[in-house]
Each structure stands twice: as structure tokens, then as C-alpha cells.
Amino acid sequence: MKIWLCTLLLACPAVAHADGQPSALVETAPLRKEAVTFNLSGYGTVFSDPGSTVNFSLPRSGQVTHLDVAAGQAVRRGATLFGFATDPVAANGYAQAESALQMAQSEFEHVNRLYAKQLATNAQLALAKKALSDAQSAVHAQKKLGAGITQEAVKASFDGVVTALFAFPGDRLQAGKTVLQIARRNASTARIGMQPEDAQKIKAGMTVWLFPVFGKPDKLQGSVREVRGMIDPQTHLVDVIVSIGRKEDPVLLQGMKLRGEIEIPAGEAWVVPRSAVLTDGQGAYIFQDDRGRARRVKVTATENGEMTAIQGKFDPGLPVIVLGNYELQDGMRLREGNR
Length: 339
Hints:
Layout: H1 2-11, E1 14-16, E2 22-29, E3 32-48, E4 53-57, E5 62-67, E6 74-75, E7 80-86, H2 88-116, H3 122-145, E8 151-155, E9 160-165, E10 172-173, E11 178-184, E12 188-194, H4 196-199, E13 207-212, E14 220-231, E15 238-244, E16 257-273, E17 278-280, E18 283-290, E19 293-304, E20 307-312, E21 320-323, E22 333-336
Parallel strand pairs: 2-22
Antiparallel strand pairs: 1-2, 2-21, 3-12, 3-16, 4-11, 5-7, 5-10, 6-9, 7-8, 9-11, 12-15, 13-14, 13-16, 14-15, 16-20, 17-18, 18-19, 19-20
Helix pairs in contact: 2-3
């Protein structure tokens, strides 16, 4: 019976002193001031950086003969994307330009021979030379348009991912009409939705840590590129656009769901271990050791990793109670755990 009673007394942190007042066994830590940041969290997706997205089109009218890729497909440089047949009208324009060049070349040579025999004037020679130059320019322009190519296999000029298709086999297209869109590899961007009140605290250049919602929990680093100036009508959030470091990109896929944590610098603040801050119906509070007595102080608290930044009417010179504080009442006598 005596052994059981001694064990019970040792397990109880609050005991009575000789004067009959209860005391609590606690551990304390000093308050300290340091530069802190706090994180704002939101969720979003990976999408292609608009600056890295390329539209594939042709500068002449024609017809898509075959399509060798699908939306979302990864392609390598040199891979065939689609086949294209030049419109007969465009091909005829090239043939006419070639014929006109041959005639201009023949006429120039004829006038040049006459000029050598003094049977043609300088003006006639200049006119023939001008006609030849114009014909050459016309053929060059047609070649740039590719009008002389009746059938063409359009290939990828870089490694990327097909993000959209705008035409299909059999479609007849006007000159410049986009057939498909490809985003370059290693050039991804994230769109993170933030609460409007939080978005006001975010600035371009702030560090962002990204965590895939599904799959490996690898942490990726990015930076805030832009905070959009409106609330998305569907999500009711403000989109924050995050640039992702190129070396991180191979981990990401278009449409991947991400959680983003944006680091907000808060300057210098008084910090305490997280266990020092308690909450009840009146809000957050701490206890300080005021010459052996518990002193309750109301605070506002912001978590910062393992530490918590606090503000309030506390005494920076008094230690804060980090263990045993759940048992305390304001004014209670204290016993240090290491004494």
C-alpha cells in the first residue's frame, strides 16, 4: 500500500508545498528573437508555360493527310507529327512563278545579246534585268511558303508534349491555320489557387515549395512569377502563377495536381517552441515563469516549423513554460524539472 501511494505521488506533476499551495513540475525555455517566415498553402495544377508552347502550322493552304500523334503524347525531336498535301491552287501559283522565271531569264539573255551587238538600249537591258529580278523574287517567295512541295511530313523540331489538336485527317486548312500545339519539355508552370485575403500577401519572386498530391512526395522548388488580379469565378480563388526550376521539370507531367506552400517573410519576431502555445475559448496564450509563479499571457501565434512566432504583452526577459503547462493556472507555484 505504501509503495502504491509513493508511485502515485511521483506521477502527479502538481503537489502541495508546506504552506498548502499546489505547485506544478514544469520545464522552461528562453524567448528568443529571430527572422521568421510563415507559409501559405494552396492547391493547383501543372500547365505549360505559354512562352514555351509552339503552334505548328503551314504558311500555305492544303489538306491534312494523316495525323501521327495524340493529345498528351510525348514526342521527340524529328518525330513525324502529321502529313500535309499542298492545295492545287497554291501549287499552281508556284508553277506559274517558275514559268515566269524561265521566260524572264530567256528574255534577259536575248536582250543582253542584242545589247552586246548594240542592237538594244540601256533602258531595254535594265527593263529585262528588272523583270528577271522580280521573277526570281516571286519564285523565292513561293519556295518560302512551300508551295512547290506537293506532299510534306511535318516533324517536331524539339522534344515536347502535344497539348492540343486543332485539325484532323481530311481537314482542309487555310494558310496559317494551326494544326497542333506542342509544349517544350522542361518548361512547366504551376497555377496555385489561394484565398483572396492570402493572395494580397504574396509578391513576385517569393519562394514556393511544391508537393505532388499523388505519387512520390518529392519537394520541388519554384518562385512566384505573377499574382493574378481577379478571382476565378469557378474556384473563387486567386491564381498564383509559379515558375518551376528547369532541373525539376522532368518530375512533372501536364495536369499533375500539386500542393504549393509559399514562404512569406515576416521579419524578426519573438519565437517559442510550438509546445509553449496553448489555446482555449479565449484564444492562444502562454505561461511564463515569473519568479516561481505561473503568469498567463494572451498572445497571437503563427506557426513557423517547429517554432511559433508570438505577439503579446509578455516579458521577453522571463522564460516561457514549454512542458507541464497544460496543468497550470494563473499564479500557480512552479517547480523546474531540472532542479
